[in-house]
Amino acid sequence: MPDTTANGEIEAWLDRFTRAANAGDPDAVASLFVPGECLWRDLVAVSWNIVTCEGQAAIADMARARLDDVRPFAASREADAKSADGIVEARIRIETRLARGDGYLRLKDGKAWTLLTRATELKGHEEPSGRRRPRGALHGVHRDRKTWAELRRQEEEELGISRQPYCVIVGGGQGGIALGARLKRLGVPTLILEKLERPGDTWRKRYKSLCLHDPVWYDHLPYIPFPDHWPVFSPKDKLGDWLEMYVKVMELDYWGGTTCERASYDAARGEWTVTALRGGKTITLKPKQLVLATGMSGVPNVPAFPGRETFAGEQMHSSGFTSGDHYVGKRCVVVGSNNSAHDIAADLWEHGADVAMIQRSPTIVVRSDSLMELAIGQNYSEDALDRGITTEIADLTMASVPYRIAPQRSLPVYDQIRARDRDLYERLDKVGFQYHFGADGSGIHTSYIRRGSGYYIDVGASDLIADGKIALKSRVEVERLTRTGLRLSDGSEVPADLIVYATGFGSMNGWAAQLISREVADKVGKCWGVGSDTAGDPGPWEGELRNMWKPTRQEGLWFHGGNLFQSRVYSLTLALQLKARFEGVPTPVYGLPVVHHTG
Amino acid sequence: MPDTTANGEIEAWLDRFTRAANAGDPDAVASLFVPGECLWRDLVAVSWNIVTCEGQAAIADMARARLDDVRPFAASREADAKSADGIVEARIRIETRLARGDGYLRLKDGKAWTLLTRATELKGHEEPSGRRRPRGALHGVHRDRKTWAELRRQEEEELGISRQPYCVIVGGGQGGIALGARLKRLGVPTLILEKLERPGDTWRKRYKSLCLHDPVWYDHLPYIPFPDHWPVFSPKDKLGDWLEMYVKVMELDYWGGTTCERASYDAARGEWTVTALRGGKTITLKPKQLVLATGMSGVPNVPAFPGRETFAGEQMHSSGFTSGDHYVGKRCVVVGSNNSAHDIAADLWEHGADVAMIQRSPTIVVRSDSLMELAIGQNYSEDALDRGITTEIADLTMASVPYRIAPQRSLPVYDQIRARDRDLYERLDKVGFQYHFGADGSGIHTSYIRRGSGYYIDVGASDLIADGKIALKSRVEVERLTRTGLRLSDGSEVPADLIVYATGFGSMNGWAAQLISREVADKVGKCWGVGSDTAGDPGPWEGELRNMWKPTRQEGLWFHGGNLFQSRVYSLTLALQLKARFEGVPTPVYGLPVVHHTG
Known about the structure:
2 copies of one chain form a homodimer. By secondary structure, chain A is α/β, with parallel strands linked by helices. The first copy, chain A, is built from 18 helices and 26 strands. In chain A, a hairpin with a 2-residue loop joins strand 12 (271-278) and strand 13 (281-285).
């Protein structure tokens, strides 16, 4: 049954809000929010940016700066409101002078606690889908008729050669592909450059046993969802094949086997010069926009342990590991204790290696089943689908929770997890494995947002550690490498034929340093993280992921990355920003942040 | 607003029906149908066959023969009933001892006029989708772990080589692919043999200008619908790419570049011996089931005109035509006046050839736009989607209309079309083009069901004919070929450098004659057509398409074919029959028809 009182509350608030907005009264707008903690998150609908305004003053400031430009503003309730624990909430539709979109509203005592506004299409620049889809056949008779195949071949032959792309995306993983698909549908000429040969190789070339740790409902690409028999946890090669077919049928302009070597920006011309090596040939591209989608994990971190050059065995970063099958009976040491470290250690053990893990700091460990059922499955699962929560609705719900309040909402989930898997945690305790639930107990998702790592979603390796099958060295640092192994800070020595550094990655602006210059990398600053002032994510508080999917301090330079969920959701927000610029729609950016950290 | 009276009528009837069915009272079942014209169409749910029982006696007969075996029988209303013109109708759900399914009921004065019952899954043998989907990752640690890629490679290497498929499908067009996908999901080991190299080549290799004549909403494959920017009329190469990616991501076992040479059935062993040539190597397969999906159009009909060997120019069947670009300035004659004839004539004209069409019998001509808006668009269009008619609902609605009553339901549509496009028809009259609307005025769809051809969906060529740009010779026969052209029955001579025979195809059992034997081809008899006693579809009335997607007089031999709609819908019905046999579920077939025509 619809809760008509709740529906009425939502509608009344939206009515007051639109009236205040359209009257150009920023203080009236701000007064509709809860005094104290209130948050307005905007994805490009009002700010031409991704911002969360926290508190009435910040909200009034954005309203003052931006509302005149975007009104008339309209909003309506999209679905039945829910009411629980003093919060009334509903999905909404919005419309501005420039865009249509959606959003989410949470009320406390008739005032807004959180508001999300999100542009989903630019007026006059809608995607050619549904009723706008192309006809395909050219009816009538035409003596100069070109077939689809001829036109497609022509596009492939011209773009980047005789005709410049408006946008170049460096990196053809799920991020580059999802964004490429959005831009293709929006008619923005875009070239994706990927150093590996075939689309999907970004997954295929990783370690053999890899499956996605996120479930299928969370992983759909835009436009073509996985069919409903797709495995819950996609094996890497199967995902690779899906990406490859996606690139083909979405007609993306994708140059595999192409290394992007240099990029520099000519501010006067508002244009990049990008040098790429394709099939042994240097090609110069002149796009207006450059998107780095080279992996939110950035450049591999390889620790500079003394004595590295003296070690007689094999050493590699986790990103270079492929399979344990070459290491039967070998002594293998994995430095690190997050997801890749665990996956690689288990893979080595399964192949009959003698494996040790060196844990240098605590890890959030959660059993995959528990995480699915108690956390992610609330929005992404067959159960959620049965409750009417489609991927689109789930995505909007996720986006509706500002980073400020997300951690506190996770705490009860981790209380449940701790209780449910007490047995696992006791066994890890016994072997000295250092686990925790994050700096504030808010678990994996928060840790992912803060630093992109710090956890293991347990699919079996924790048992190997608890059972002593993978030897554990914890509460130690690596002091130096010797010819035969590692000397640790507790004075012990671990012999090794192979050392795998599962020691993570640097910030994405490291790619900018490699490709453009240190100066530009420093100018845009650190990527990812929200300023939580926890390990790997220094303060001050920024409220949104640094530099991701939004304007940076370097004109024409954008960062796109993250898991499949983020690739899907934020590719839309980024694509609309690029489309607006392509079409010459003015895009005054509100709230471009100050850079606090260079990497 | 739901029509509660109509809903109640449907529910009351279903209640009476299920009580009579479960009481094992065939006469009581039959008495619930309208005396005189009443029709029960069953797709495998009751009959293990595709049958339409017409009249109370036939209905009682099927009930007597089959209900004891399938009960308990349950049925419920699936959606709100509609009531108009004295008919109350609704989609329904059904369940038998063996299967779950859906259906459609139309009542007149409380009695059933038409009933559709259709199995959609076999109990205990459901597809592994939704909650039954595989996990993908193998959680836990496993020393003999095989990755998805390894298992997939193993399957590819073994099937048909060291392990026999249960089913071989000859022909890898949309028919073989859709059926292959169904069988893959159902876990029936199946090999698809296709003489062309790549999946999709069945479309790619056809004439260059070809686009689908059916719109996208009608053309989805099972499981992975086209994204919503897909063109209305799919260009052939784009469709080819889609089919190719579909084969890959659905993991079909598809042998391209493989010619099926011979097949023979060993009744004692219940097994086929199929000889195939793959990459120059002869391979012998031993499937239990053999499906011919080599195109419902069958073997090309090339008319045996006297003097064919004396003609000095080029001659080809329409299926061999690729593009007009070799015929600039040449004199080209197209024999025939249906879809391919028109498309090829227009293509030649567009390339600057001098084109004549020889029309030997009347053609149903309907403008594409009119057909879309007034006929097919009622169920398959953006409008239909807006009215809540998904592809699944549209498919069920289409299946719910028995062939006996389909023509009369089309008559008003063609009255509208005639009025709307009067101008076109007057212009065709003036140049002597013989058009009509089918033997009984029921138009294209009926003609397609009766003979698989007989019409042109006008996308431009009719204008060329009306304008005299394509020269027309009508009401004539070809008397003989000369060295330089064609001599016609009116004594005239048409000079030609190229003759294209757009003269259609034989019955699909012609493939059985080629592959198996004339004896088996004659035993199963003519394929397609319903016995309407009109041109190309001799009586007596059979009520269902002959031999299509259902048991034939040759054990283990099946025919699958048709457009994308039929490939989608009937692949399910056929797949369930094959799955039941694979699993050893007894499948007593009700109403295997007598063969009246050998081809």
